[in-house]
Design brief:
single chain, OB fold (Dihydrolipoamide Acetyltransferase, E2P), 152 residues, five-stranded mixed beta barrel, 23% strand, 2 domains, alpha+beta
């Protein structure tokens, strides 16, 4: 059934395949299918030009598609890395780092360098100089899930 459909559509089947892959990038994000989809569209464009020739067999078409896929993924990834796309929220997944500069009152005293503080709705373990409970502290850094604080 699929083979018959490919024979009916001819070179257009590559263009359809490439468009399906481009559309799949929306559903399965990862920035790979877009480059493979472009390789499919390019293979379709070449197939439109060479479809009537006797030597343009399916093995050559798949070989061209594979080579173009590898090249386009490689070039696309390099281009994305060089574009230095900056995020509107650079600290989105670095919650501790996003708290640097905030002030809070100690929940528990800092004894032997360790204590606890509540910032927002989260209780954080803090490291810093020994201070009594209720003392005001400022977050100056983060290390893993612990915050480094200093007295105000």
């Amino acid at each position: 059934m699929i083979v018959n459909m490919i024979r009916e559509f001819g070179a257009w089947s590559w263009l359809i395949f490439g468009m399906v892959l481009l559309g799949a990038e929306i559903i399965v994000p990862g920035n790979v299918l877009i480059w493979v989809g472009l390789a499919g569209v390019a293979t379709g464009a070449v197939s439109l030009l060479l479809w009537e020739t006797t030597w343009w067999i399916w093995e050559l078409q798949w070989l061209l598609f594979a080579v173009l896929s590898v090249i386009s993924v490689f070039v696309g990834r390099r281009w994305l890395i060089r574009s230095n796309a900056t995020s509107e929220e650079p600290l989105l997944n670095q919650r501790g780092a996003s708290l640097i500069g905030r002030t809070a009152d100690l929940m528990d005293p800092i004894i032997n360098g360790h204590g606890r503080v509540r910032i927002g709705d989260t209780v954080w373990i803090v490291n810093g100089p020994d201070l009594p409970a209720g003392a005001k502290v400022k977050v100056v850094g983060s290390q893993g899930s612990d915050l480094k604080v200093e007295a105000l």
